[in-house]
C-alpha cells in the first residue's frame, strides 16, 4: 500500500506519484484506466515518483516513455520497485539524459534529468516525410498510395521513394526519388528504409509499403495521439472480397513468445540467425496489451521520429523476408524503446500474401492474453466474390507452370493440359498436382528446383520456416513419392486453394482489387464494423460503430 507519510522526508507536495498499488485512505488520488494505447499526460512539470510500476503493470515501458519526455530539465524521477528489475533509465536510449543522484533507503532510486532525450529535438507534428521503398513492377498500388498521401491534409509534407518506379507511375512530379544503391537483385528492404529516413527533410517520418492505403484522417489521428511517440503503427486490415465482408487483420502489431535476447545476440543478428527466429512462435498482439521486449511492429508501416530511426536504424545484414521486422522491434526494445499502436484510425492493405493467414484464421492474443485462432464469421459464406490473390494474369501464370513443367521433364500430355487449363483455383491446383507427379529432378539441382517452384508454381515466396522444412525433406532419403506429396500438400499451396477454390486467383484487369461503390459494399462495411468492434479478437476501437464504419469507408480502395 502506498502511504505518502512514509516518503515525506524527500517528496514535496508538488511531486506526482504514479502507482498501481492500493492507496492509503488518507491520500487523495485520481484514478486512471491504463492500457497499451493510452498515453500518459502530465498536467504540470512536477517531479515524478514511480511506485511499484514496473513490477505491477505490463505498460511500464510506455508509461516511463511518456513521462520522461514531458519532464523538465533538472526535474527528478524517483523509482521504487519491490524486486530487483532492469531499470529502463539505465538503457541506452535514456542513460545519457538521466543521472542517478542517490539511492534512498537502499531501494528508492533518484534520477535527475540532465539533458533532453534524443527525440525531444523533434518536437512538433506539423511536418511529415512519407518514405516508400519501391520496385519497378506494375504501379497500380503505388499510384493509389501516393494519391492518398497527396489527399491527406497536413501543414507540411514530402513524399520520398527509394528505387526505380515503373514508367507508368503517375506522380513523378510530386515525389523525390533516391537511388537504392542496388548491389544485388535481392530486395534489400532494410537498406532502402534507412536511405529513405536519412534523406527525409522533416523530423516526423512515416515509412510504409506501397500496398498500404493511409486514412484521410491521418493528421487528426496523430495529433489526438500526441507528440513524442515511440515506434508506432496503426491497426491494419485486408479485405479478401469485392464488397468488404471479409476483414482480416493484416500485418500490424505482433508479439513473440520467446525472449529473443536469450536465444541470439540481438545486437548482432545476421541472416544465419533467421533460421532460429523462424522456428519461434509469434502472433498478433492485442493493441491494448503490452509485453515489452516481445512486441514488435511488422514492416508495413512505421510512424517514428527521424532522430530515433537514425539512432537505431534497421539491420542491413537482413533482407526482405528475413524477419527483419522482428529483429528491429526486439532490438530497439533492448535499448529501452517500446512499440505501440495509435488506435485513432486504421490502414487497409490493398493486396496480401497468402502465407499471412491460415485458411483465413489468424493467431491472436486477445484482450485477456489468451491465444485464439480466429476469423470473421463471414469467411464461411461460400458465394462471396473474392479478390485476386496474385498480381499476375492467368496467361502469365499458365506460362510459368508450362516453363517449369518443360524444364523438369513433364510429358507432352501434361504440357497440353497446362495450355488449356482454365486456371481457376481448383483447376490450377489439379494441374500443379499433375505437374509435380510428372517431373523429375536430380539431387544437385534441388535448390534450383525449389527456387523455380516458388517463382513459377507458387508465384510467391514461402515462409522461411516452411521452406526449411520442405528443403530438408527434399534432401533426405525419403522416396520420390513422399517428396512430391510434401510439395503438393504444402501449407502455402493449400492456403492458396482455400483463398480461391472456385474463382481465379489471377487478375483480368489491374484494378480487380478495387471496390465498387454500391449498396452491397455499404452493407459489407457496416457488418465488418460490427465484426471488428465486437466479435473479432485482437482488434481495438475506442470509438463507436459509426466511427469504425467511417474508418473502413475512408480506407477502402474505391474504383473511380
UniProtKB/TrEMBL annotation:
* Family matches, as Gene3D superfamilies: Spore Coat Polysaccharide Biosynthesis Protein SpsA, Chain A
Q: Which domain of life is it from?
A: Bacteria
- SUPFAM superfamilies to which the protein is assigned, alphabetical: Nucleotide-diphospho-sugar transferases
Name of protein: Uncharacterized protein
Q: What is the lineage of its organism?
A: Bacteria, Pseudomonadati, Pseudomonadota, Gammaproteobacteria, Enterobacterales
Amino acid at each position: 500500500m502506498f502511504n505518502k507519510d512514509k516518503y515525506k522526508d524527500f517528496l514535496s507536495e508538488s511531486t506526482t506519484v504514479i502507482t498501481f498499488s492500493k492507496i492509503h485512505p488518507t491520500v487523495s488520488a485520481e484514478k486512471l484506466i491504463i492500457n497499451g494505447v493510452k498515453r500518459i499526460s502530465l498536467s504540470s512539470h512536477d517531479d515524478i515518483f514511480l511506485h511499484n510500476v514496473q513490477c505491477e503493470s505490463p505498460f511500464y515501458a510506455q508509461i516511463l516513455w511518456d513521462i520522461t519526455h514531458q519532464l523538465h530539465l533538472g526535474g527528478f524521477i524517483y523509482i521504487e520497485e519491490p524486486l530487483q528489475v532492469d531499470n529502463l533509465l539505465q538503457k541506452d536510449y535514456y542513460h545519457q539524459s538521466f543521472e542517478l543522484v542517490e539511492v534512498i533507503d537502499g531501494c528508492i532510486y533518484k534520477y535527475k534529468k540532465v539533458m533532453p532525450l534524443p527525440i525531444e529535438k523533434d518536437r512538433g507534428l506539423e511536418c511529415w516525410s512519407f518514405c516508400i521503398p519501391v520496385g519497378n513492377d506494375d504501379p497500380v498500388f503505388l499510384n493509389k498510395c501516393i494519391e492518398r498521401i497527396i489527399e491527406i491534409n497536413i501543414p507540411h509534407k514530402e513524399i520520398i521513394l527509394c528505387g526505380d518506379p515503373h514508367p507508368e507511375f503517375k506522380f513523378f512530379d510530386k515525389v523525390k526519388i533516391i537511388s537504392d544503391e542496388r548491389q544485388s537483385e535481392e530486395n534489400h528492404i532494410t537498406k532502402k528504409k534507412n536511405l529513405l529516413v536519412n534523406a527525409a527533410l522533416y523530423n516526423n517520418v512515416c515509412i510504409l509499403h506501397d500496398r498500404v492505403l493511409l486514412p484521410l484522417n491521418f493528421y487528426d489521428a496523430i495529433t489526438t495521439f500526441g507528440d513524442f511517440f515511440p515506434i508506432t503503427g496503426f491497426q491494419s486490415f485486408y479485405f479478401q472480397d469485392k464488397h468488404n465482408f471479409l476483414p482480416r487483420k493484416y500485418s500490424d502489431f505482433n508479439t513473440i513468445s520467446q525472449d529473443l535476447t536469450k536465444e541470439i545476440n540481438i545486437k548482432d543478428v545476421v541472416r544465419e540467425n533467421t533460421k532460429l527466429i523462424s522456428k519461434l512462435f509469434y502472433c498478433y498482439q492485442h493493441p491494448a496489451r503490452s509485453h515489452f521486449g516481445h512486441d514488435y511492429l511488422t514492416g508495413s508501416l512505421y510512424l517514428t521520429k527521424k532522430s530515433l530511426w537514425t539512432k537505431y536504424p534497421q539491420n542491413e545484414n537482413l533482407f526482405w523476408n528475413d524477419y527483419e521486422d522482428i529483429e528491429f522491434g526486439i532490438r530497439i526494445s533492448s535499448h529501452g524503446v517500446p512499440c505501440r499502436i495509435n488506435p485513432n484510425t486504421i490502414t487497409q492493405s490493398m493486396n496480401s500474401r497468402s502465407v499471412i493467414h491460415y485458411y483465413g484464421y489468424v493467431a491472436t492474443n486477445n484482450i485477456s492474453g489468451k491465444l485464439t485462432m480466429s476469423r470473421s464469421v463471414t469467411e464461411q459464406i461460400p458465394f462471396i466474390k473474392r479478390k485476386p490473390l496474385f498480381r499476375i494474369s492467368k496467361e502469365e501464370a499458365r506460362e510459368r507452370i508450362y516453363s517449369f513443367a518443360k524444364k523438369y521433364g513433364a510429358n507432352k500430355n501434361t504440357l497440353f493440359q497446362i495450355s488449356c487449363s482454365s486456371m481457376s483455383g481448383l483447376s490450377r491446383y489439379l494441374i500443379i498436382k499433375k505437374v509435380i507427379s510428372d517431373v523429375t529432378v536430380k539431387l544437385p539441382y534441388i535448390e534450383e528446383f525449389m527456387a523455380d517452384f516458388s517463382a513459377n508454381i507458387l508465384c510467391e515466396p514461402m515462409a522461411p520456416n516452411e521452406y526449411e522444412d520442405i528443403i530438408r525433406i527434399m534432401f533426405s532419403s525419403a522416396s520420390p513419392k513422399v517428396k512430391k506429396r510434401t510439395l503438393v500438400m504444402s501449407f502455402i499451396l493449400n492456403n492458396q486453394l482455400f483463398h480461391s477454390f472456385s474463382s481465379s486467383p489471377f487478375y483480368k484487369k489491374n484494378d480487380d482489387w478495387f471496390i465498387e461503390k454500391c449498396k452491397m459494399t455499404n452493407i459489407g462495411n457496416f457488418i465488418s464494423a460490427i465484426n471488428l468492434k465486437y466479435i473479432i479478437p485482437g482488434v481495438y476501437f475506442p470509438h463507436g460503430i459509426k466511427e469504425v464504419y467511417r474508418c473502413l469507408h475512408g480506407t477502402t480502395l474505391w474504383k473511380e
